[in-house]
Specification:
The protein has a 3-stranded antiparallel sheet with strand order 1-3-2. The chain has helices spanning 5-16, 24-51, 55-65, 75-82, 86-98, 120-141, 146-164, and strands at residues 72-73, 102-106, 114-118. It is built from 7 helices and 3 strands; from the N terminus they run H-H-H-E-H-H-E-E-H-H. The chain has 172 residues and is mainly α. The protein has one domain: Winged helix-like DNA-binding domain superfamily/Winged helix DNA-binding domain (Arc Repressor Mutant, subunit A), CATH 1.10.10.10. Helices cover 66% and strands 7% of the residues.
């Protein structure tokens, strides 16, 4: 198999930092994971550019759609999911509502409460961006066989469980 950017990076580090000890495999893993993340972020930027969505708009619509109640949530729940203040969430919702992508409705269980509901247009633009990003994900995954993809997922799951258990660094 030919060398990739991670192989070259490790070789440069090994040659440049003679007094620094590091594990080649750990360094290569870190570089490769970072490169995959950068690739997916670029695919997201392309999807946003093609649909005219801002990143925070996509993120809000995405969090609204990927819940147990797709397309419906309270503003407070959305704010918590996105790590925003209630005031920050209100600002986002006003912008999304102005564009016709969400609407605020009386709460289903308590009519004094306000819930957020995605509109048909909001769902359409979210799905459009998601399809573009999904095509890039599919293209990336096509480099692996189904068996390799399953193996990669098992290994990545071990890493994410380690992080979620608090043993890894926080994700800031």
């Amino acid at each position: 198999m030919p060398k990739d950017a991670a192989d070259l990076h490790v070789e440069r580090w090994r040659d440049s930092f003679i007094d620094l000890t590091f594990d080649d495999e750990v360094e290569a893993m870190t570089v490769r994971v970072g490169q995959v993340v950068r690739h997916l972020r670029a695919a997201t930027r392309l999807a946003l550019a093609e649909t005219g969505l801002q990143d925070f708009e996509y993120e809000t619509l995405h969090h609204l759609m990927i819940r147990d109640t797709p397309g419906h949530a309270s503003p407070g729940t959305l704010a918590a999911d996105l790590g925003l203040s209630n005031a920050g969430m209100t600002g986002r919702l006003e912008g999304l509502e102005t564009k016709g992508w969400v609407k605020r409705i009386p709460g289903i269980t308590d009519r004094r409460r306000v819930d957020v509901e995605i509109t048909r247009e909001g769902a359409r633009i979210w799905r459009e961006a998601l399809a573009i990003r999904g095509a890039a994900e599919d293209d990336l995954a096509a480099a692996l066989t189904r068996k390799e993809l399953a193996t990669l997922n098992r290994m990545l799951k071990k890493l994410t469980l380690h992080i979620e258990a608090g043993a890894g660094s926080d994700d800031r």
